[in-house]
Request: fold
Amino acid sequence: MELTKGDELPDITLADQDGAWIKLRDFVGQPVVVFFYPRDNTPVCNIEACEFEAHYSDLKKAGVKVFGVSEDTVSSHKKFATRFHLEYRLLSDVNREAERAFGVGRKLFGLLKDRVTFIFDKQGKLMHTIKSQLNGRRHVDEALSVLNIKTETH
Reply:
């Protein structure tokens, strides 16, 4: 079941692209954006990742932690992050633990994970969810709007 407004940030620990273990609940106390995307190095995922990177300095300045999550491996994430010069953390959910904890759905007979972004407030409570399978830019634009972040690059 997908998280709904007011739900707590799940207590999940995943490896990032450098192999470091990241416990999401450690970031309660600041806003957190967790975006789930289907796969590294696919057209819409590339756009979404690069859009988050393009606005990462604005998000970081506002104290927001950003995490991208897919079931790709740590090494795949490392190549993806290097290719696009991503500064935020990509988390490897190979066992789909985070996918289940957040209630991220699947399409096409379970083969394609939904593209969904969760925005948590400083208390670790879900304040907004964004869904758009084919519009990666929407996730970033809407996250900036919900977090009331004025951007320098848009």
In short: The first strand starts at residue 13 and ends at 16. The chain has one domain: 30-146. The CA atoms of residues 53 and 86 lie 6 Å apart.
